[in-house]
Amino acid sequence: MRLVKPSLGAAPDEPDTDPLGQLLAAAARGDERAFAELYDQTSARVYGLVLRVVRDAAQSAEVTQDVFLDVWRQSARFDRSRSAVMPWLLMIAHRRAVDRVRSAQSSLVRDDRYAELNVERPYDSVSEQVEISIEGQRVRKVLHDLTEAQREAVSLAYFGGYTHSEVAELLHIPLGTVKTRIRDGLIRLRDALGVVTS
Amino acid sequence: MTPEVHALAGPYALDAVDDNERQVFEEHLKGCEDCSNEVRGLRDAAAELSNLSAVAPPPQLRADVLATIARVRPLPPVVDNVVALHRARFSRSVWQVMAAACAIIAIAVGAWGVQQHRDATRQVSAQASAVDQLLSSADAGAISGPVGSNGQATLVYSKSQGKLILVAHNLPKLASNKTYQLWMLSGDSTATSAGLFAADANGNAEVSASGDLSGVSRMGISIEPAGGSKTPTPGQIQATMAI
To answer: Which end of chain B, C or N, has fewer beta carbons within 10 A?
Structure first.
């Protein structure tokens, strides 16, 4: 179920100041060149996230293709009063990446939940192809402001694709503690990065 | 709302929730502006994490993506209530729908309890707190879906409490010799009636029911002859929703 809130951000009639928003709006009118531009500006972050969760390059390419097809189809329905373009796009990517991992898992290890959760997944290993951008360096620096426990919970959930209940099981800590660590970690990240929510 | 629900803002913003938790939290978000604002900020922060894992995709992918989209037309914008891929998208919250539901008839069939309220005002506030109570249950779920061509229904339920509340609007008007019927569908496709209900002149309806929901995998709504049917009439099923 999707949630549609009465607009709390930008008024729908005002021009979009988010450059990605302008490209997406053009795509919604069928502008394929604008969509290609949107792809060029976002595909490394989308593909990289999918790859981190899914692991397999061929499958990650498939998932990424599905993500961009979905973004194209949903372009006219993007609600910028609820989210900026990039978080929206990454949310779609994360959801699909996790879906892919779960459907693969359910066919392979459906009968052994314990084994599934204890299979070794080095979530923080940085692939050598990763492009460390200036933004990446900034985020990495800020990430060090989080406590080790917060960083671990956030990383497992985001890059590992685990639900917070699974994170609790993996770390042998209470569910409430995981929720708090994730929330506090994200709050610290938000405040340190000075994320501007328009 | 309860601190427990509020604490889900972090996992939700990180997409670290299961489908059921996502539904419950999105239901909560509709009535909690603080959480909505927080989720937005936290989701922006989470998005920044992807700067750590950015990898250029295989060059061929760009051509594949552009070739694919060239053959697909973007969906038209949402003007009002338009059904999304799997689950319905609502522009009105359950609460508003409930406020609009003036005339409600819920007649139970079988073991299901009768709840019929004639005082619309008292009924709305009673139901709002009933929904609240259901949502606070640990296994609470909420799901929305289309009914017929324009109708929308939201089902809030708790299997452990054995309770459900169905709120629907824009239901098609029925002939006087027809009725809506709510069904519980189990895994082996057995349909058990959960009661009959009618919509008011504006197509709004609300049904509260209590009973054994264990083993029920889907709820269905059908149009049946007045008095209801033992099993759903083929071709008359207007909606099914997985619970």
So the answer is: N
User: Per the CB < 8 Å rule, is A86 touching B47?
Assistant: yes
**Distance separating alpha carbons of residues A115 and A160, to the nearest angstrom:** 16
Please name the residue that has the structure tokens 């609240």.
Answer: B132
Strands, DSSP E only, in chain A? Answer: none
* Candidates A45, A87, A154; nearest CB to B54: A45
Q: Determine whether the interchain pair B48/A3 forms a contact, defined as Cβ–Cβ distance below 8 Å.
A: no
The distance of Cα B228 from the centroid of its chain, to the nearest Å, equals: 24
Burial class (CB in 10 A: 0-12, 13-18, 19+), A21: buried
In this structure, are A28 and A100 located in the same domain? yes
What tens digit of pLDDT does each residue of A22-81 get? Answer: 999 999 999 999 999 999 999 999 999 999 999 999 999 999 999 999 999 999 999 888
| Domain housing A22 | 15-110
Tell me how far apart the alpha carbons of residues A22 and A29 are, in angstroms, rounded to a whole number.
11
What's the CATH code, domain B1-74?
1.10.10.1320
Same domain, A19 and A99: yes
Say whether A2 and B84 touch across the interface (CB within 8 A): yes
**ipTM, interface predicted TM-score of the complex:** 0.82
